[in-house]
């Protein structure tokens, strides 16, 4: 089951409506040069190096957001389900980063000394602020796009013909992997459970942060393509 099929099966749910809401954003994400050229193996190494370094920085903050969201869950069952799905995604991504950091000559000192790009800084601060200050349901909705969009993109690229010698094939395999998909499905299911218990005002907030996080996903990839740094 791919990410598009999953959204179809969720027809009538909060997450299905949220996914439909970001259709224009997803069209822009799917057209990003970084993803197109990662798919066919022609992405310049310096761009991928910039991207994977920024992604390593992002994951440090994202992991903390997941912990905060889990702590706000209304019962132990949801805490455990959420932590389990989050752990799957983080473990998969950490393994990917370790391989690529070595492959592209990025040292631990490089990661330690690196500064987040403006887009990465804005995105992680948005997620952290939402996780700290908003309800479980709203915070959960803000971290969902990262899971779901990467799953969707990974599945789409995975289904294209394999390019022999593609230096980025491990990235494609990771986000098209059933283990990552399982984690994404769990977070989608938990978000729908939370939405059913939410007030109309809270559901509107959930939609707002879901859309905003999806916009940040586009910004993050686009900024890596442009090798974005702080202008001053």
TrEMBL record:
InterPro entries: Haem_Oase-like_multi-hlx, Thiaminase-2/PQQC, Thiaminase_II, Thiamine_Salvage_TenA. It catalyses: thiamine + H2O = 5-(2-hydroxyethyl)-4-methylthiazole + 4-amino-5-hydroxymethyl-2-methylpyrimidine + H(+); 4-amino-5-aminomethyl-2-methylpyrimidine + H2O = 4-amino-5-hydroxymethyl-2-methylpyrimidine + NH4(+). One of its GO terms (molecular function) is thiaminase activity. The keyword NAD does not apply. Transmembrane segments: none annotated. It holds the Pfam family TENA_THI-4. Its EC number is 3.5.99.2. It is an enzyme of class 3 (hydrolase). Pathway: Cofactor biosynthesis; thiamine diphosphate biosynthesis. Keywords: Hydrolase, Thiamine biosynthesis. It comes from the Bacteria. Catalyzes an amino-pyrimidine hydrolysis reaction at the C5' of the pyrimidine moiety of thiamine compounds, a reaction that is part of a thiamine salvage pathway. NCBIfam families: salvage_TenA (TIGR04306). Belongs to the TenA family. This is Aminopyrimidine aminohydrolase. It comes from Rhizobium laguerreae.
């Amino acid at each position: 089951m791919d990410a598009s099929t999953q959204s179809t099966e969720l027809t009538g749910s909060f997450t299905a409506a949220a996914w439909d809401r970001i259709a224009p954003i997803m069209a822009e994400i799917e057209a990003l040069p970084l993803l197109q050229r990662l798919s066919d193996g022609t992405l310049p190494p310096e761009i991928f190096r910039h991207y994977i370094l920024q992604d390593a920085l992002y994951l440090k903050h994202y992991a903390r957001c997941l912990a905060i969201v889990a702590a706000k869950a209304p019962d132990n069952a949801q805490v455990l389900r959420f932590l389990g799905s989050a752990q799957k995604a983080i473990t998969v991504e950490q393994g990917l980063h370790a391989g690529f950091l070595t492959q592209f000559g990025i040292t631990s000192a490089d990661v330690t000394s690196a500064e987040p790009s403006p887009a990465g800084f804005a995105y992680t601060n948005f997620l952290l602020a939402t996780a700290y200050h908003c309800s479980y349901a709203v915070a959960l909705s803000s971290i969902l796009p990262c899971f779901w969009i990467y799953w969707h993109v990974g599945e789409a690229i995975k289904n294209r013909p394999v390019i022999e010698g593609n230096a980025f094939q491990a990235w494609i395999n990771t986000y098209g992997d059933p283990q990552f998909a399982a984690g994404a499905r769990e977070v989608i299911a938990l978000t729908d459970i939370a939405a059913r218990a939410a007030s109309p005002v809270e559901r509107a907030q959930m939609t707002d942060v879901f859309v905003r996080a999806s916009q940040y996903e586009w910004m993050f990839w686009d900024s890596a393509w442009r090798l974005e740094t702080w202008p001053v």
